[in-house]
Amino acid sequence: MFFHPMDFLIILAFILAMWAQSKVKTSFQQGSKVQSSSRMTGVEVARRILDNEGLTDVKIELSRRGALSDHYDPRAKTVRLSEPVYRGNSISSLAVAAHEVGHAIQHANRYSMLVIRHKLFPIANFGSQLAPILLIIGFLAYTPLIGIGIILFAAAVLFQLVTLPVEYDASSRAKNKLVELGMISNREEQGVRKVLNAAALTYLASTLIAVLQLIKFIMIFNNRR
C-alpha cells in the first residue's frame, strides 16, 4: 500500500509507545533501588490491602512469566506477582503489587468500566485476530471486506479505549490504599506515582496507535467506495 498521510502520525505514536516502554523499565528500575520505609514486600502489601477490603478469598501467587508479568486473573480470583514484585520491598514493588490489587477491588465492586471490558473481551479478541486478514484481502482483492475488517478492528480499539480508565482507576486505588494504610510515607508518594504513571502511559500510547490506524483504514475505505 502507498504511504498514507495518517502514517506519519502513526509513526509518531509508535515512537511514543517505544519511549513509554523504555520509561516503564527505567522508572521501575529506579524505584527498585529505593527501599520502602515500611520494609513490606509486594506480597505483604497485596495481602494487607486485600484483607482490609474484605477480599480474603482472593489468592496471591508468584508469576512464572518473568519480570513485569504482574496481573490479576478475575476467573481464578488471583493476583499474580513477578519475582521482583512478590519478594521485593522497594517503592516499585509496592506500587505494582497495589496496582494489581486495585484490579481485584474493581472486580469485587463490579466497577462499571471493568465489567464492560470483560464483556468486550471475546469480541475484541476475535476482532483483533480476524481483522488483519480481512483488511489485507480487502486492500489487495475485494474492497467490501475492508468494511467488515474495520468493524472488527473497531471492536478491538473500543476494548483498548475502555482499558484506559480501568488502568488509571486501578493506579488511583493503589496509591490511595498505600497512603491510607500507612505503607508509604508522604515523600514516597512521588516515587509510587512515577512508576504508576509510566505504566499508564504505555496503555495510552498503544491506544493512540490503534485509534490512528482505525481512522486511516476508514479514510482509505471511503476513498475506494
TrEMBL record:
Range of residues in the leader sequence: none
InterPro entries the UniProt entry points to: Zn_peptidase_2
Pfam families linked: Zn_peptidase_2
Entry's transmembrane regions: 133-159, 195-221
UniProt keyword annotation of Methyltransferase present: no
Key words of the record: Membrane, Transmembrane, Transmembrane helix
Record protein name field: Peptidase
